[in-house]
């Protein structure tokens, strides 16, 4: 229709514009994603090449399988009891139907059109990382953050970390296709996104970024030398196993050995000694040589935050003080407090509990501390996930064949939490945070096998076509599925739908 008025490429231009809007919206705005999807649908209706659309849809097997997965949600309404939540879930998953359908009906026929979308997406990702970093450093705006993970201002830090990993994969893709001069610019962008991933301390982002590096390394070197290609992967898996073993091995302290603790401070006040919490850094008790009287009296000399208040992260600052001073090997009294520098005081106020390990390494030590000492999972992301996974497997084992249905997943979790007398607070009683487990709970083993076949077919088709970027995308998605319900949020499902749809078409080399 519009082609006759404005020229033969009008609908193609609008198609690219709509897809660019979705790509920009992924890291920046849910509203932009929704408006862009409606724009894409309207453009197809106005173009009205319905016979061509239908022919393209029938010819795209990868689309037909993902369509089947969406329809599985509809079929599972038959054994759902919570229909209100079921229709809410279907509405949230509409991008899984809309975007692949649009891209299968009207595929980007030329690789240069695909690369336009990829360039727009990567530019948006880099722009948002710069905005996030500037806001976090207070170079612009006046946003107050209580955690480094709040570094993602526009969307969930977990979802954005995965999006950044995809941005890194796209930069690798263009690296193989540009001149030496452009490679210098790409290198700067690549180093920035790597730095941002490490600085933001989001574990899922770090893991997916490493998966991207491994995918490109293997794909590029596989034909030259399988040993060289697989060696870093084997080393990476071995390192991950060692790290996991270290994290999940509790820090130990021999409480039976006779230790002659001093009982008085230099001022003559009494020390308190508790040996129940162990430092993950020193393997020594944290709550020894503590004189709360002196800490409470003198803390106000160094900080404007009250001793009985909380640090920037919302933790009791008294506990942060004690853990921080323990990491420096100081006694927790007036004498030890006086040895802290202004930098130390600032770090304590900001919720940092270790003077020795910060950033990503500090986060790993924090996780080990949780696994060693914390019995109550609330407020501790890994411990909460362990509770979700344990509960999820219990639900799945009781509904193994067809699952609980589209609308009943959260209800099943709530009931199981009550049955188990879970320590999780009501606001923390969430779903599986593992998409494979979520599918198993929702549709049973048959639904999980269908989904695995769909993803496997998609991965095999792109590996066979040597589409390294598409392969990197599916690796990112699979890794994210292990630790998140990626397709249970608008950003996650749109991210999956956009790139699944883009790479379902075979572009000419």
Question: How would you portray this structure in words?
Answer:
There is one protein chain. The radius of gyration is 26 Å and the shape is globular. It contains 22 helices and no strands. The chain is 65% helix and 0% strand. The chain has a domain at 250-373. Helix 3 (30-47) packs across helix 7, helix 7 (94-105) packs parallel to helix 22 and helix 9 packs antiparallel against helix 21. By secondary structure, the protein is mainly α.
Mean pLDDT: 85
Topology as H/E string? HHHHHHHHHHHHHHHHHHHHHH
pLDDT < 50 stretches: none
State the end-to-end distance.
31 Å
Relative strand content: under 5%
The Cα radius of gyration reads: 26 Å
Percent helix range? 55-70%
Q: How many strand segments?
A: 0
Largest sheet, described in full?
none
- Overall morphology: globular
SS-based structural class? mainly alpha
The total count of helices amounts to 22
């Amino acid at each position: 229709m519009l082609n006759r008025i404005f020229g033969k490429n009008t609908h193609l231009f609008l198609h690219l514009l709509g897809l660019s809007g979705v790509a920009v919206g992924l890291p920046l705005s849910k509203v932009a994603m929704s408006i862009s999807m409606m724009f894409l649908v309207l453009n197809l209706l106005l173009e009205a090449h319905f016979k061509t659309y239908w022919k393209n849809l029938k010819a795209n097997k990868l689309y037909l399988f993902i369509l089947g997965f969406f329809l599985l949600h509809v079929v599972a309404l038959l054994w759902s009891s919570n229909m209100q939540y079921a229709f809410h879930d279907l509405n949230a998953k509409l991008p899984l139907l809309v975007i692949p359908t649009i891209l299968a009906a009207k595929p980007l026929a030329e690789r240069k059109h695909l690369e336009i979308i990829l360039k727009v997406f990567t530019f948006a990702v880099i722009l948002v990382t710069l905005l996030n970093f500037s806001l976090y450093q207070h170079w612009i705006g006046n946003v107050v953050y209580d955690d480094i993970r709040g570094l993602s201002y526009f969307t969930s830090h977990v979802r954005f970390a995965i999006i950044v990993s995809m941005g890194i994969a796209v930069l690798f893709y263009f690296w193989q296709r540009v001149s030496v001069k452009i490679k210098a610019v790409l290198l700067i962008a690549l180093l920035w996104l790597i730095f941002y991933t490490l600085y933001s301390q989001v574990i899922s982002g770090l893991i997916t970024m490493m998966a991207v590096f491994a995918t490109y390394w293997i794909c590029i070197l596989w034909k030259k030398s399988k040993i060289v290609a697989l060696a870093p992967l084997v080393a990476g898996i071995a390192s991950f196993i060692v790290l996991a073993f270290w994290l999940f091995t509790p820090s130990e302290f021999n409480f039976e050995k006779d230790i002659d603790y001093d009982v008085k401070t230099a001022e003559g006040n009494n020390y308190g000694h508790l040996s129940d919490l162990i430092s993950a850094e020193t393997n020594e008790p944290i709550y020894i040589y503590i004189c709360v009287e002196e800490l409470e009296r003198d803390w106000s000399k160094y900080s404007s935050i009250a001793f009985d208040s909380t640090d920037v992260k919302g933790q009791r600052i008294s506990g942060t003080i004690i853990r921080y001073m323990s990491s420096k090997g100081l006694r927790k009294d007036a004498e030890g407090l006086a040895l802290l520098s202004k930098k130390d005081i600032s770090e304590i106020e900001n919720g940092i509990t270790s003077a020795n390990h910060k950033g990503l390494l500090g986060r790993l030590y924090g996780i080990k501390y949780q696994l060693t000492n914390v019995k109550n999972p609330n407020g501790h992301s890994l411990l909460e996930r362990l509770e979700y996974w344990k509960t999820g497997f219990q639900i799945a084992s009781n509904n193994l064949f067809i699952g609980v249905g589209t609308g009943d997943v959260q209800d099943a979790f709530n009931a199981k939490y009550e049955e188990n007398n879970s320590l999780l607070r009501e606001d923390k009683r969430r779903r599986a945070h593992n998409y494979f487990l979520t599918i198993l709970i929702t549709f049973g083993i048959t639904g999980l096998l269908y989904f695995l076949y769909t993803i496997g077919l998609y991965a095999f088709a792109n590996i066979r076509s040597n589409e390294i970027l598409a392969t990197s995308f599916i690796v990112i998605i699979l890794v994210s599925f292990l630790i998140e319900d990626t397709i249970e949020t608008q950003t996650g499902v749109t991210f999956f739908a956009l790139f699944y749809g883009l790479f379902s078409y075979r572009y000419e080399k």
